[in-house]
Amino acid sequence: MDRDLELQCLLLHHIFRLSQSLRQGESTLDELPSSAELARTYNLRVETVKKKLKHLLHLGLIHAISVSPKRYRFDPFGFSELDVGSEIYPILHDETSIYYLDI
Questions:
Q1: Residues 34, 46: Cα–Cα separation, whole Å
Q2: What is the CATH number of the domain that holds 75?
Q3: Most buried pick, 30, 72, 79, 90, via CB within 10 A?
Q4: Quick check: is 59 in a domain?
């Protein structure tokens, strides 16, 4: 798998888990990740994380829910509308993938 694609999947999976926790009432909006928090968690440059998040935003898989700091939440509707031809689609829908999203 391409390194950029794997990084997008990793960030999306992290945001997905925290968004699920929020939906179940186990966390608050303040616990959703910002780009800086994601960068620290995965030891990446903030600019790199922001670039990957921008692509996930463009795909409609996440959306920003605050301004400062900008926190990200998984978008289940965007996931259901994801283009089948997208390179990330098969990874997120393959039950054997570590990035599989069970929605």
A1: 10
A2: 1.10.10
A3: 72
A4: yes
